[in-house]
């Protein structure tokens, strides 16, 4: 299965050396676009997002550019064969055709150069959350409205958003009593995802953060990665938020619940590892932030080791301590539990500070 990176990286996704985290050089218009977007708006800031570029649209642009280039090439060859280059009255038209030929070729080369060779790709959306609430809650709100048959809203001030907005804000503030039962599966978990994303945005110097990475198959979304964080020294990590109730522990090398969940947790980990395999850079660890449940035997976390990528499940209230362990330099931070931090670093195979 061939892997391709669809261009459109945010600046946070560009390594200082100029190499995109997922494997292709951060050059050309897409890198400049990513930097401009990142400088003017945050990834999870609640605001309307008039600019939205999807992986599908990028692929479509390249396909049409290739078609246009072939058309211009054929017309130019035919025109030249009919003597267009020798007639002074038609020479300007011939020059225009050659210019269009060069421009369309450069467009395909710069934009489409990284998507040649397969249908799979990764599209990073810097500002995908078009529902006015923003962030992951905005995405869940859109799903909620779609399932309830409510037309899509574009801004905070639309009548539709004024109806759904209080539900989204209740989920964001943790007030579950004001969230309808049919909306809880999306909104409560999405609110936690957004909170995790904001914590990742606050990581120390050197960390690069991207949210809501969509994996495409034949231009259709196949899967979604909640967050990716990258450090040039420590490597690439996936972070995913799961609403797992009850207690999560490890048995026979897989995560299990303290009740019969039909193997749901084990399948979730398989999916996360598959998503990691779709990235063009090796993932050092997958961190699962557990909402609405406990993990381990009173310690708040559990690990799955082995030949595959290490997977760490951690309770949401302990995630902040884990992020401290990911800082490559102490920088004067006072850790609440130094032994716990060293334990994180040991399991993450990171150097001691």
Question: Helix fraction?
Answer: 25-40%
User: Which outline best applies?
Assistant: elongated
Distance between the termini: 39 Å
| Element pattern in H and E | HHHEHHHEEEEHEEEHH
Count the DSSP helices.
Answer: 9
- Largest sheet at a glance? 8 strands, mixed
Radius of gyration: 24 Å
Q: Based on the structure, what is the oligomeric state of the protein chains?
A: single chain
Mean pLDDT over all positions:
63
Strand tally, please? 8
Strand content: 15-25%
Structural class: alpha+beta
Unreliable residue stretches: 1-59, 112-135, 152-161, 330-338
InterPro entries: NERD
Protein name: NERD domain-containing protein
Keywords: Membrane, Transmembrane, Transmembrane helix
Organism: Gordonia phthalatica
What does this protein structure show overall?
- The chain crosses the membrane at residues 61-82, 94-120.
- It holds the Pfam family NERD.
- Residues 189-259 form the NERD domain.
- The chain has 353 residues and is α+β, with helices and mostly antiparallel strands.
- It has a domain at 226-347.
- The chain is built from nine helices and eight strands.
- It has helices spanning 28-40, 55-81, 91-112, 135-147, 159-173, 184-201, 264-277, 319-325, 338-347, and strands at 121-124, 208-217, 220-231, 235-251, 254-257, 283-295, 301-304, 310-315.
- Strands 1, 2, 3, 4, 5, 6, 7 and 8 form an eight-stranded mixed β-sheet that branches.
Topology:
Elements: H1 28-40, H2 55-81, H3 91-112, E1 121-124, H4 135-147, H5 159-173, H6 184-201, E2 208-217, E3 220-231, E4 235-251, E5 254-257, H7 264-277, E6 283-295, E7 301-304, E8 310-315, H8 319-325, H9 338-347
Parallel strand pairs: 4-6, 6-8
Antiparallel strand pairs: 1-2, 2-3, 3-4, 4-5, 7-8
């Amino acid at each position: 299965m061939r892997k391709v990176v669809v261009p459109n990286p945010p600046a946070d996704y560009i390594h200082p050396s100029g190499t995109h985290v997922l494997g292709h050089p951060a050059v050309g218009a897409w890198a400049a676009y990513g930097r401009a977007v990142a400088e003017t708006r945050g990834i999870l800031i609640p605001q309307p997002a008039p600019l939205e570029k999807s992986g599908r649209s990028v692929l479509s642009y390249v396909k049409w550019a290739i078609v246009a280039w072939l058309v211009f090439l054929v017309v130019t060859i035919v025109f030249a064969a009919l003597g267009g280059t020798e007639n002074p009255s038609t020479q300007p038209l011939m020059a225009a055709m050659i210019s269009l030929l060069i421009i369309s070729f450069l467009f395909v080369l710069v934009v489409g150069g990284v998507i040649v060779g397969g249908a799979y790709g990764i599209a990073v959306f810097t500002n995908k959350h078009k529902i006015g609430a923003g962030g992951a809650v905005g995405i869940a709100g859109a799903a909620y409205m779609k399932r309830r048959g409510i037309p899509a809203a574009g801004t905070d001030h639309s009548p539709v958003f004024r109806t759904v907005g209080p539900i989204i804000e209740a989920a964001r503030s943790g007030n579950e009593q004001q969230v309808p039962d049919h909306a809880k599966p999306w909104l409560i978990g999405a609110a936690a995802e957004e909170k995790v994303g904001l914590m990742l945005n606050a990581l120390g110097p050197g960390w690069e953060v991207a949210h809501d990475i969509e994996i495409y198959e034949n231009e259709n979304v196949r899967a979604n990665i909640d967050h990716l964080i990258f450090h040039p020294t420590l490597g690439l990590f996936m972070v995913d938020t799961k609403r797992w109730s009850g207690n999560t522990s490890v048995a026979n090398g897989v995560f299990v619940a303290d009740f019969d969940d039909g193997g749901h947790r084990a399948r979730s980990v398989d999916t996360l590892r598959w998503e990691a395999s779709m990235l063009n850079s090796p993932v050092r660890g997958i961190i699962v932030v557990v909402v609405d449940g406990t993990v381990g035997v009173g310690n708040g976390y559990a690990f799955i080791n082995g030949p595959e990528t290490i997977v760490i499940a951690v309770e949401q209230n302990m995630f902040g301590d884990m992020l401290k362990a990911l800082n490559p330099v102490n920088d004067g931070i006072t850790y609440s539990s130094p032994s716990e931090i060293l334990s994180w670093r040991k399991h993450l195979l990171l150097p001691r500070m």
